[in-house]
């Protein structure tokens, strides 16, 4: 196994090879066990599920290949909705499909949150609001992000009518490029910032 | 079982020099610290958010959608394997095993990163290969390929030191096991 000039004088090559493989298996096994055990110790809603197909409803990574199930809303129309009275009174709602950290950093003012990967945390409070709303716009980072489509499927699977849900593909990136307002922290925190500030 | 050194041909001058350097323990110490700190950082950055790592892993499109169990398992455990290997190197236990694990991981990482980078470059969206940059899931965020690939090759070469070195100087193993022979070489190793 080793070049002769580096080999130990005490033990033969086969012994060293077996020992090397045993050590390798040991560190890999310890890593696997640690990962599984620590994950199991988490609260069920925070636990990463090895058996769940997180992406079963959004096979194409590229948004341009999105399946027909989704309806989309353009950036200009999105701004009109944001400024409409329907948005103010909750007939139209926005849902941010990103994780807690990204949501707290900035989200479109008044947005609700639905992180698909930990959907159980949000659906109990969110589903009654969605049932009441006439129009729902779901967004994520923009670009090739697919979390908005995954969150849309979560809503549809939980009984929200598909024909009132729209995906805003531009997402936070497009909103930010136009210097439009964001809210920081929790929903309705009132902490407003603009664009990339 | 024991192999007598008297049966080996005498070292050439360069071999003797390499052996002496190795037995000083310093090449191994440097390799252990560099690889150990790096992999602890890489693992730690990913452990907190396996979902984010899963998303990055998925962008490589290595596995078919039906292999989601394997993909999930890798997303959950790979960062922990990196962390354990990093700690093993820093402390100085299972040094050769951790070295081989790094070597295998780096081989796999570098191949898939290179394939993805070449694929992105072929789209024609980049003026040169060095303009290709993406978050490779290595824990450092967005990184240019002209930096990442040579860096990985350097680390790959460095990973051979823990595997090949016979010295256990500055290792916990070397402190616990008899190393009365030259340069802290571990008798049991």
Task: Characterise this structure.
The complex is a heterodimer of chains A (197) and B (189). Chain A is α/β, with parallel strands linked by helices and 197 residues long. Chain A has 2 domains: 4-41; 63-194, Rhodanese-like domain (Oxidized Rhodanese, domain 1, 3-Layer(aba) Sandwich), CATH 3.40.250. Chain A is 40% helix and 12% strand. Chain A contains 7 helices and 6 strands; from the N terminus they run αααβαβαβαβαββ. The termini of chain A are far apart. Chain B is built from 7 helices and 2 strands; from the N terminus they run H-H-H-H-H-E-E-H-H. Chain B has one domain. A two-stranded antiparallel sheet of chain B has the order 1-2. Chain B starts with 12 loop residues before the first helix and ends in a 13-residue tail after the last helix. In chain B, 64% of the residues lie in helices and 3% in strands. In chain B, helix 4 (68-91) crosses helix 5 and helix 5 (95-122) packs antiparallel against helix 6 (145-164). The chains are: A alpha/beta (197), B mainly alpha (189). Chains A and B meet through helix 1 of A and helix 1, helix 3, helix 4 and helix 5 of B.
Structure at a glance:
The complex is a heterodimer of chains A (197) and B (189). By secondary structure, chain A is of the alpha/beta class.
Keywords:
A: 197 residues; Oxidized Rhodanese, domain 1; 2 domains; 4-stranded parallel beta sheet; two-stranded antiparallel sheet; 12% strand; B: 189 residues; mainly alpha; two-stranded antiparallel ribbon; 3% strand; globular; disordered C terminus
């Amino acid at each position: 196994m080793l070049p002769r000039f580096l080999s130990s004088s005490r033990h033969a090559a086969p012994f060293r090879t077996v020992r090397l493989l045993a050590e390798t298996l040991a560190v890999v096994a310890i890593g696997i066990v640690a990962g599984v055990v620590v994950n199991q110790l988490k609260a069920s809603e925070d636990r990463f599920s090895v058996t769940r197909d997180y992406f079963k409803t959004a096979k194409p990574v590229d948004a341009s290949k999105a399946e027909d199930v989704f309806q989309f809303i353009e950036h200009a129309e999105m701004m009109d909705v944001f400024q409409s009275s329907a948005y103010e009174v909750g007939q139209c709602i926005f849902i941010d499909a990103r994780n807690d950290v990204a949501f707290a950093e900035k989200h479109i003012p008044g947005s609700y949150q639905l992180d698909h990967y930990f959907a159980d945390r949000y659906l109990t409070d969110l589903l009654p609001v969605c049932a009441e709303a006439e129009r729902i716009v779901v967004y994520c980072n923009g670009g090739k992000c697919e979390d908005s489509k995954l969150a849309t499927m979560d809503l549809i699977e939980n009984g929200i009518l598909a024909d009132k849900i729209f995906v805003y593909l531009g997402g936070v990136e497009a909103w930010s490029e136009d210097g439009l307002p964001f809210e920081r922290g929790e929903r309705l925190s009132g902490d407003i910032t603009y664009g990339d500030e | 079982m024991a192999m007598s050194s008297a049966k080996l041909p005498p070292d050439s001058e360069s071999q003797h020099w390499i052996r002496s350097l190795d037995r000083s323990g310093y090449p191994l110490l440097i390799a252990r610290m560099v690889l150990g700190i790096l992999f602890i950082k890489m693992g730690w950055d990913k452990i907190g958010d396996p979902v984010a790592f899963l998303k990055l892993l998925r962008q490589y499109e290595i596995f078919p959608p039906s292999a989601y169990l394997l993909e999930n398992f890798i997303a959950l455990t790979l960062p922990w394997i990196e962390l354990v290997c990093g700690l093993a190197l820093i402390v100085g236990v299972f040094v050769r095993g951790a070295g081989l694990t790094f070597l295998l991981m780096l081989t796999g990482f570098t191949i898939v990163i290179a394939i993805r980078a070449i694929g992105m470059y072929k789209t024609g969206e980049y003026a040169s290969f060095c303009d290709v940059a993406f978050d490779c899931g290595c824990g450092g965020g967005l990184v240019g390929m002209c930096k990442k690939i040579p860096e990985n090759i350097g680390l790959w070469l460095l990973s051979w030191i823990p595997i090949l070195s016979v010295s256990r100087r500055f290792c916990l193993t070397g402190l616990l096991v008899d190393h009365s022979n030259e340069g802290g070489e571990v008798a049991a190793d």
